[in-house]
Amino acid sequence: MSSPTRRPPQPEWLAALERRRSVSAAGLHAPGPDPEETRRLLAIAARVPDHAMLVPWRFILIEGAARGEVGALLAEAYRARNPQMPPEKREKFAGIMARLFPAPLAVIVVSRPVGGTMIPDFEQELSAGAVCMNLLTGARALGFDAIWVTGWAASDAEARRILGLGEGERVAGILHVGTAAETPADRPRPDVEALTTRWAPPE
Ligand SMILES: Cc1cc2nc3c(=O)[nH]c(=O)nc-3n(C[C@H](O)[C@H](O)[C@H](O)COP(=O)(O)O)c2cc1C
């Protein structure tokens, strides 16, 4: 039998992974992915570890005119859901909801743990998180920029209904995808060494 040969390191992959940086949704402009690129992006996103192959997630796409339509409904819901809030503040946040989808494409990654299996919900939710991360990396590989966000629209029950979620479903992430004029300066990164220990037998 032949011995295994190690694959050479991939400098382009490494550079992309080592420099990945999110760009705020407001900084993501056209062009966004075309239909074929979107299909490819979602196929990459779906290629994640998934214990027992339950596929405990799905996608909702928001693009084109739908961005403004969803935004208007979310703004209306925000006003209705926060009657006690000072009007000025309420209008400010309703305005943010109205403009929640500025990027050419938003992908809502919906977590939907499958019940009645041996696989804990936590593991299924982790798989949905992996989908979000693959979307970020896949968008970069296709030449786009992206960010993973959540916020009020992901947590409020009425907002979730407007986004198209059903019973037992949660927003794992709203992934905005587009093209950035510039990538922001990097942020401080965790000291990996300080976060890492080597296993030792318990005392
Ligand atoms: C589950 C999840 C939800 C997040 N929600 C938001 C959010 O609502 N708004 C936001 O500005 N950043 C949010 N972030 C953080 C951004 O995705 C991003 O990590 C941050 O802007 C730092 O940029 P970086 O990815 O280049 O480190 C969230 C991250 C995760 C993992």
TrEMBL record:
Origin superkingdom: Bacteria
Species the sequence originates in: Starkeya nomas
CDD domains named in the record: YdjA-like
Full protein name: Putative NAD(P)H nitroreductase
UniProt region (Disordered), positions on chain: 182-203
Gene coding for it: ydjA_1
Enzyme type, top EC level: oxidoreductase
GO molecular function (one): oxidoreductase activity
Keywords: Flavoprotein, FMN, NAD, NADP, Oxidoreductase
Enzyme Commission (EC) number: 1.-.-.-
